[in-house]
Design goal:
Layout (H helix, E strand, L loop, with lengths): L2 H14 L1 E3 L5 H4 L4 E4 L2 E4 L1 H7 L5 H9 L3 H18 L6 H9 L4 H11 E2 L2 E2 L1 H23 L5 H13 L15 H4 L5 E3 L36 H18 L5 E6 L2 E7 L5 E6 H11 L3 E3 L7 H9 L4 E3 L2 E3 L2 H8 L4 H4 L4 H16 L1
Parallel strand pairs: 6-10
Antiparallel strand pairs: 1-3, 2-3, 4-5, 7-8, 8-9, 11-12
Helix pairs in contact: 1-4, 4-9, 5-6, 5-8, 5-9, 11-16
Length: 360
Amino acid sequence: MDEKINYKLLKRLYDYGEIEYHHLMSFLKHQHILELKHDRYIITNNWISYGHRFGSEQDYLLSLFCFEEDYQKYLVEVALLTAIKMSETEDLEGIETFVRNLTKLSAYAISVLADIKEDSHFLIARLYNRLKLKEHQFQDLNRFIFDGPPHYQRVMYYLTHVQAYKHENVIEDIELGKKIDDQWGKGRKISTNLSLTPLKERPLYMLVPFIPERKIDQPQFQQLFTYPWKLFVFICCIVREHFEAQGVQAIRFQAIGDEVDVLLTSSNHQQYRYGAFDEFAIEFCKVSKYQLFPYEIKNLQTIFKDLKEHKLLAIVDGEYRLPSEVEDVIYNNNIYIPLIAESKQLRSRIEQWIDGLREK
């Protein structure tokens, strides 16, 4: 295992959700953490749910190395050696605690104990010798993950996470497509990293920043088709204007300092604060069964400010609105087809969801 290449591949998956096939990733396919489709490895719903157990990117990515079977067995032996020492050989309480904490890995641990047991004692020297034979094989990987020899607390941290992993049935991914409605179809995996560098080519399955093949005559709109969450915010503002054009004051995106609040008007004309825009977006993602990675969406209020700086939005009477000149461009130029005609389903789902909130 080339740990540096492996980590680079994992980092790419963490950011963009898919990579070209590489044999080093096969051990994660066996665990249903990755899926191989059209010569590409793509992250599964198991990758996403397992990642939510970690507080940092590095801890998550390093833990994935511990799914490799031979290395996992080696780490179990490392932890077992310490557990035996802590139990002072004859006291089994430490070993029982170790086995109890690693229930899914206990079968291998018990087989090792059987190999090193003599009469009523465990011969530490036998286990120590087993580990010495493997140290050279995993020396580079140990240095990469543990900055040296593996130590008990950190080994147990990774192993407890690995043994807690439970794979679910893999949810089928549909190709991304070129239209907004295809890309934002229900169940889509979407990156929540707002600072990702756009890919030069359209990905096959994941909705991440990428440079679209279709050239937009109006340059200021190009960013909407490059960055998914800029498009989502802008579409929400289009929906807001559509409600008002029908004589319904359904929703407002109020500027509160650097934040954006969502205000709803109920069917009986009572206005109330729904929450921050992030909360609004998160709940819509849940309704749409979007699979967000690597973490939950946050800081979408920064997009409102960015679109305002690019003159795609304006603040009018304390709320974010589409400027009339922007609406003129949208509805009187060829951008209408990719932006409006090809987002009909997404806009309809947002409108229906807002109507549902107004009835509550």
